[in-house]
Each structure stands twice: as structure tokens, then as C-alpha cells.
Amino acid sequence: MNNKGTLLTAIILALAIALSGYFIGNMHKKGKAYDRSVEVKGLAEREVKADLAVWPFQISNAGNDLAEMQREIANHKEEVEQFLSDLGFGPEELNVGSTQIEDAMANVYGNNARSAFRYIAKSDFTIRTNQTEKLKEAVSASLALAAKGILLNAKNTWQPIEYIFTGLNNIKPAMIAEATENARQVAEKFAQDSNSAVGKIKSARQGIFSISNRDQNTPEIKNVRVVTTIHYLLKD
């Protein structure tokens, strides 16, 4: 009886060892298969036109009599508003800001103390519009105001007009799909070189969308770019 029990125990132990070896080997094999993967990046780029333009500018007035300057500032503001209205810009597109007046006599450390005019005034304006092409025309046409002694000076000389693209959410899905397809093509090339096939996606990371000017001369044309990182499993 003891011999039979010992034999049965030995058989059970052998089967257990064999089964555990099978499962361990199978898990190792599956683990190796899971480790066979490739990480690739997919790129999508598009050129789009800016759909919003912002032009902040100033007009300047100078004089020695404050009362006379106030009348001149008011007249010049009306001239500017009428000029922009005639070009087709509505009141909702134009913001008339504050007017700042500097007294050169009070600024004893400044160069303005030597100016022929005691008072210098600067009035702020900002146009914010979707009529991007019309705004470019307005900048050129503004020279006509010079004949009336009104100069529109850009507040940002390095970028007189800021062009913005606001339609990113409308093109995001298509660009992500394009970047994903591009990444899969790269993965298939890797798989082909290793005599494998592309399997399921192990992980994926969407990159940050970037919007930049196409170049310095055409800031109204934007380059939209996104890079996705995708980890594909490989299979035989």
C-alpha cells in the first residue's frame, strides 16, 4: 500500500512538474511574442489660411494747448473710424482704446523736454476681424490719411498684424488619422524587413499640434503639424 501511495505521489508530482513546465514555457513564448514590437512616429502637415487678423495701432497728436489738442484728437479719432467704416469694417471689429497725454515739461529726465511741443498724445486702436485680406488692403490705404495729418503707426513694428488660425478643432480628426496611417506605413516597412507582419497597437501617444508661419513674408499662411507615436506589436 505504501509503495502504491509513493508511486501515485510520484506520478502526480511528475505531472505537476510537466504541466508547470508547459505553462511556464507557453507564457515565456507568449511573452516573447508580446515583446516583438516596433515604435514608430507618424507625421501630418497642412497649410491653412489664417481666419483672424489683429491690427493694433496708434495715432499721435502734439501741441502746446490742451484744449486745442483735445479737439484735434477727437477729430482725428472720428476720421479714423470713418475711414475704417468706409472700407467695410463694422463697429464690432474696431476697438477704440484710451488716449495717453504726456507732458514734456514734467519729464525733466526725458528728451521730450527739448521738444517744440509740450504735450504729446497717443491714442490706441485695435482692429480684430475675420476679413484678413481686407485688413491688408486697409494698411496700404491708410496712407490716404497722411494728407490729413493722421498717421497710423503699428504698435508692434516687428509684427504689425497678427494672423491667427482658429479652426484647429475642425481639422484635428483628419490630421490624426493621417498621422496614424503614416505611422502604420513606417511600421509595415520595419515589419517587412524583419519578415513579420504588423499586429495590434500596443500603445499610442498623440503629439502636440503646432501652428507656425509658413515663412516670414507670408504670416497669413500657417503650417499646422502633428506627430503621433505608436507602438505596434509584430507577428509572424
Record keyword descriptors for this entry.
single chain, 236 residues, alpha+beta, Translation Initiation Factor IF3, 3 domains, 5-stranded antiparallel sheet, 4-stranded antiparallel sheet, 4 helices
Helix/strand/pairing class, anyone?
alpha+beta
Counted by DSSP, the helix tally is 4
CATH topology of the largest domain: Alpha-Beta Plaits
Strand content: 25-35%
Total strand segments: 9
Give a structural overview.
- Strands 2, 3, 4, 5 and 6 form a five-stranded antiparallel β-sheet that branches. Strands 1, 7, 8 and 9 form a four-stranded antiparallel β-sheet that branches.
- The model is unreliable at 27-31 (pLDDT under 50).
- A hairpin with a 7-residue loop joins strand 8 (210-213) and strand 9 (221-235).
- The two termini are 53 Å apart.
- This protein has 236 residues and is an alpha+beta fold.
- It has four helices and nine strands.
- The protein has three domains: 1-35; 37-51 and 165-236, 2-Layer Sandwich (Translation Initiation Factor IF3), CATH 3.30.110; 52-164, Alpha-Beta Plaits.
- The protein is elongated, with a radius of gyration of 36 Å.
At a glance:
With 236 residues, the protein is α+β, with helices and mostly antiparallel strands. 39% of the residues lie in helices and 34% in strands. A hairpin with a 7-residue loop joins strand 8 (210-213) and strand 9.
Produce the secondary structure layout.
Elements: H1 2-35, E1 37-49, E2 52-63, H2 66-86, E3 94-103, E4 119-129, H3 132-141, E5 153-154, E6 162-164, H4 168-193, E7 197-206, E8 210-213, E9 221-235
Antiparallel strand pairs: 1-9, 2-4, 2-5, 2-6, 3-4, 7-9, 8-9
